[in-house]
Amino acid sequence: MAQYLLEVAYTPESWAKQIRDQGNVLDRIQPLLEASGGRIESMFYAFGDYDLVGIADFASPEGAAAFSLAATAGGAVKTFKTTPLLTIEQGLDAMARASEAAKGYRPPVDTPAGHRA
To answer: Most buried residue, 6, 24, 41, 116, by most Cβ within 10 Å?
Structure first.
């Protein structure tokens, strides 16, 4: 399963209803998660640009997209950001692959960034 960072900003109307009803967000999104092939690893309320942040596991990128689309279409959120995450090992593998791939790459600039002529 792949992990994703979820960042959610609620609409003022959604906040008003949540304050009134005080329902558990995890209970509310569980059916949508299950239908999308996902599960929450951790979820937190936040104060700043996003109201809710969490880490979720999804069986496929399509499942993560389905969850994001369905949650956004419900009208309770003004922003829903989904960011795929890599483990440290996956990041190191990606860097090794980039290093190898870059050997044959000729960028369309006179001097690549970070290099002196």
So the answer is: 6
